[in-house]
């Protein structure tokens, strides 16, 4: 196989990963790394470096559309980015100190959890909320558009959300992923934000979080242009197509099939990490 | 004065941020695509070596090295330049937020945005471990 064939193969894989990632809500990043390492035999460090860059592209592309609709809360995002960026730098520094086998195992576990979390139904909190004093001081209370006009919300448990975001940042820097699943637990479950607000604000934060660890990865030589180019271009196109399909098609059975495939990939990442084959 | 504060509403800021992100990603993708074509045109027949980790050569690890390679019209340097534009996009977004919060006279969030910007800058310029 020469470079042209390899590049095309990576591009097509990234396209599919971006498509599936956008349909399942997992994000393309967390899917392309196992594909690169398990199917194409790429060293996990190169795979993580290339994925990290594609995460910035998809997050920023999607965020551009979401901010205009008025769902994302820029203040909440900016405040929590303090935790995610510091975590991301630490995670990236940590990545150089632990073995690739351990990274692979952690990756598999996070992937399993994310697949499980994304398949669970989410319940919206209903009724009026009591504004939290800390959140009020941080000007986090806001409103979002609904079919019946703008609806207000008031975030709770800011310190818990902040700590969880720090963890999300570490995972993002360590594994080169957006770790949207952890971000959503922080905002959805701990802080009690509405579904749409937490998803879009999380997405808004992913680009900044990934940029924080990208500097470390770049200076370490983990970001290979020949690999990152097809990964980034593929994931971006794939997620754009996925977002289109998502609004039209019945995606329930599709998500079930993909969920199964992702579960198998996760188990294989853990297995390879344990047996030291990565 | 009233006009000035009216203009910088949250909605207006969000609109600008949306445009900033879109332009950044599009520009980065275009440069990466162009660099990729140049790279494959010259090295397309060579064998890929990604199964063994060697790390990138030093000129592809720093901003100055990447700019030098890109100016010399090397494919891998051009791709890396596009990736730098991509990484710079969220950084520019945070820098812009500092200005936007300042226009809104929101001192608390000027400080918050500055902290985030400082962490990003440390990572992009300082980390040489």
Helical/strand content category of chain A: mainly alpha
Spatial strand order of the main sheet of chain A? 1-2
Looking at how many chains there are and whether they match, the oligomeric state comes to heterodimer
User: What class, by secondary structure content of chain B?
Assistant: mainly alpha
How would you sum up this structure, described in words?
The complex is a heterodimer of chains A (278) and B (129). Chain A has 278 residues and is mainly alpha-helical. Helices cover 75% and strands 2% of the residues of chain A. With 129 residues, chain B is mainly alpha-helical. In chain B, helix 2 runs antiparallel to helix 4 (75-103) and helix 4 (75-103) runs antiparallel to helix 5 (107-126).
Structure, briefly:
By secondary structure, chain A is mostly helical. Chain A has helices spanning 3-24, 29-39, 44-69, 74-95, 100-119, 133-137, 158-175, 180-190, 195-220, 225-248, 252-275; strands at 142-144, 151-153. In chain A, helix 7 (158-175) packs across helix 9 (195-220).
Question: Any descriptors?
Answer:
heterodimer, A: 278 residues, mainly alpha, 75% helix, B: 129 residues
Write the layout of secondary structure elements.
The complex is a heterodimer of chains A (278) and B (129).
Chain A: H1 3-24, H2 29-39, H3 44-69, H4 74-95, H5 100-119, H6 133-137, E1 142-144, E2 151-153, H7 158-175, H8 180-190, H9 195-220, H10 225-248, H11 252-275
Antiparallel strand pairs in A: 1-2
Helix pairs in contact in A: 1-2, 1-10, 2-3, 2-11, 3-9, 3-10, 4-7, 4-9, 5-11, 7-8, 7-9, 8-9
Chain B: H1 2-7, H2 10-43, H3 63-71, H4 75-103, H5 107-126
Helix pairs in contact in B: 2-4, 3-4, 4-5
